[in-house]
């Protein structure tokens, strides 16, 4: 049996651990393993396949990034290309991908990716490609699973950054607004904000009101505390307002960002307090995975191979109720998992006095 491993979308800490476990599990069964260089787009290039051997995956568990390379414009159903006049358009090249995989005698693809990758995987399944998915994204927003690989490291990085910014906020008696990633879900903001004892946490699931945030700032000041920590997820919006979008390219998801700077200016104006904002950005995707991320990544990678061995194709291996399980890719494709407003993490945040800027302060 010959299989391929693809790391789709943005990188996340833990990808290499998943690649290593999948590769070694497959080799121990006598299979051959190839990695797709920089995603499906590589299949239109000269040397798309990277042979994965035990030697090639040695010592990579603790490495961030992906030894295969990643591409967030690698959707074969919407492949960007530049037209003669310099403008960009997209075309469906999925049939070529299917042909190339067949030509190379690849029996199945281990697709390590986020919601976008699972959508692509589901489309490839419909074209007859056998796929097993591994849930990867720092955003933790893949439908059907409790946790994705990369999330724990991102939250740890964000928490440590907020801790550091807090000492400066305290020294200067400022409002510090920390913008975190997470796309349309507030998992990183909520988990890091709560863990780092932020005063205000703003997430896409609970649109905020500037009036409510200003009231909370005044309340904090009245209590004698002179600094305020606001953690805002990049996808958070004002009640009735639009998302802060920095741009959108063909074949790529929209780029979010800007809400932190908006809040810095509004809060300075409305409260008279000195305010600063900080965008954590790609720091959250980088670095060595935490022990937890290493472990789930290794477990996901090995579980994907067991699924293939059982002939259980077109499934996503997930962590659910602390157990690795398999769910049909078709059940999760095209959906995202957001923070439930009544989740115990939200309730805990409220109980310890965090405001979501939405009337609860
Ligand atoms: O999905 C992971 C993620 O890091 C999001 O949190 C963020 O919105 C996006 O990717 C950033 O994408 P890029 O790496 O293309 O800037």
Describe this structure in words.
- The protein has 361 residues and is α/β, with parallel strands linked by helices.
- The protein folds into 2 domains: 2-149 and 287-332, Rossmann fold (3-Layer(aba) Sandwich); 155-285 and 340-351, Phosphofructokinase domain (Rossmann fold, 3-Layer(aba) Sandwich), CATH 3.40.50.
- Helices cover 34% and strands 19% of the residues.
- It is built from 10 helices and 15 strands.
- It has a 7-stranded mixed beta sheet, with helices on both faces.
- Strand 4 and strand 5 form a beta hairpin.
- Helix 1 packs parallel to helix 8, helix 4 packs across helix 5 and helix 6 (210-222) crosses helix 7 (259-271).
- The longest helix is centred in the middle third of the chain and has 22 residues, at 151-172.
- The radius of gyration is 22 Å and the shape is elongated.
- It starts with a strand and ends in a 10-residue tail after the last helix.
- The model has no long low-confidence stretch (mean pLDDT 96).
- The protein binds 6-O-phosphono-beta-D-fructofuranose.
- The site of 6-O-phosphono-beta-D-fructofuranose (F6P) has 13 residues, from strand 12.
